[in-house]
Design a protein that fits this description.
The chain is 36% helix and 21% strand. By secondary structure, the chain is of the alpha+beta class. The chain is elongated. The two termini are 15 Å apart.
């Protein structure tokens, strides 16, 4: 590929080919297409292999070198003038939920491909290499843990632990990676990164509600999950007076309301959710003797999540004293908050301003591969709106102009970090 020193005005005016990008998204979406217009392409299935093969074929057509590591993460590199520099990387994932959409993950991967195609179109040489990655099993819908490939890359999980993970049919990650031919030679993590950007649909309603084009993602919320068990005494609903009841449901309801109240007190990014409830004995005319429910707390920093935790435990202690019922809270999972690097956030913001797109600071309530990449290198994310904030659903949707805008921002943010010769 012939490259040349680039005039500054060419870079300033640079835009991606939105029609080509949209067509690539629609072509990838044909693999595992569902009747309702979504995609079912579970990780390490034959359909996942077909999707991987297609993206890699496009990368090779664009002149990229391809390497694969032992957990199946794929890296596609465009050389820079100084290939001793660590690459400026972008990426996401192409595995989907069982009833997934066309854009979750896939947009980030194909946005990165379009950035590289655009650099090729204009013969633009960068000082540092530019690299596109897609990560294995981000969704976690077939194998646990979620964000497996990036987690192994960042040494959060061992390769052996990941290989041993089983799906509901007893098939392991190691077996399925080998079966589809995607166990590479590179040791996970033996791959430098200069900076990492990830473009993604918001998966929430904020940008659409505010009619904003670009979300400058400040970080990913820290998450803490609990199981809460309230133990009372089941009794007949008719003969037992209200003042003599040990009603586990009423105490559980108080705690559930407090979960939401705590989230409001620790705003603006506090989140408090009770999503699963089990009642024993679950009979119409029996006072509940035990209620088990989930609690999900999220916030922008680990310190704020700690404060939410302390507030919950203090409230539970008060409820136990007032009612005499036992309440057991067990933390079952914890994901630390992942603030993104100021330089990467500023690069995204400057790109949106330069291109004339409306933009706002936003946080991500969902996990992304960028969380683990932020532990290894400066990282940032770009959000675009999705219709009605719906994701992980076959009707997940966004508009071609929004996809194009997000990719233009990605292009200019990456060029700022990779430096045009």
């Amino acid at each position: 590929m012939d490259t040349k020193t680039c005039d500054a005005s060419v870079v300033t005016d640079l835009r991606v080919n939105g029609e080509r990008l949209w067509q690539s998204l629609m072509d990838l979406a044909k693999i595992g297409a569902t009747p309702k217009g979504g995609v079912c392409r579970l990780t390490l299935t034959d359909l996942d292999r077909q999707g991987r093969d297609l993206v890699i074929s496009w990368a090779r057509e664009a002149g990229l070198s391809v390497t694969i590591d032992k957990i199946g993460n794929v890296f596609m590199r465009r050389a820079g003038r100084n290939n001793m520099l660590p690459p400026i990387m972008t990426g996401s994932h192409i595995d989907t939920q069982p009833t997934g959409g066309k854009f979750d993950g896939n947009f980030g991967v194909l946005a990165g491909l379009e950035v590289i195609r655009t650099l090729n179109d204009y013969d633009i040489e960068t000082e540092a290499p530019v690299e596109l990655a897609f990560w294995t099993n981000e969704e976690g819908s077939r194998f646990v843990p979620v964000m497996m490939g990036s987690g192994v890359f960042a040494h959060i999980f061992t390769l052996e632990h990941a290989y041993a993970a089983k799906d509901i049919d007893g098939k392991t990650v190691g077996e399925e990676l080998a079966r589809i031919g995607y166990i590479g030679d590179e040791e996970p993590g033996d791959h430098p990164i200069g900076a990492y950007f990830e473009a993604h649909i918001e998966q929430g309603p904020i940008l659409e509600d505010k009619e904003i084009t670009i979300g400058v993602v400040q970080g990913v919320l820290g998450i803490r999950w609990y199981d809460c068990v309230v133990t009372g005494m089941e009794a007949h609903a008719g003969p037992t007076p209200m003042e003599l009841r040990k009603d586990a449901m009423q105490v559980a309801a108080r705690i559930m309301q407090e979960v939401v109240a705590i989230a409001h007190r620790f705003g603006p990014h506090g989140r408090g959710t009770v999503g699963m409830v089990q009642v024993f004995p679950n009979s119409r005319n029996v006072i509940p003797g035990q209620v088990t429910f989930s609690i999900d707390f999220r916030n922008m920093t680990d310190a704020l999540v700690d404060e939410m935790d302390a507030a919950l435990r203090a409230y539970v202690g008060t409820v136990e004293q007032e009612t005499g019922l036992g309440v057991a809270i067990t933390q079952v999972s914890h994901y630390p908050a992942a603030p993104f690097h100021p330089d990467c956030k500023d690069a995204v913001r400057r790109a949106a301003q330069r291109l004339g797109y409306s933009h706002m600071d936003i946080v991500s309530g969902a996990g992304h591969d960028a969380v683990y990449m932020s532990m290894l290198a400066p990282a940032g994310m770009i959000f675009i709106p999705c219709k009605d904030g719906i994701s992980h659903n076959e009707i997940e949707d966004t508009q071609p102009e929004q996809v194009t805008a997000g990719t233009n921002v990605l292009l200019h943010a990456m060029l700022e970090r990779a430096r045009v010769v």
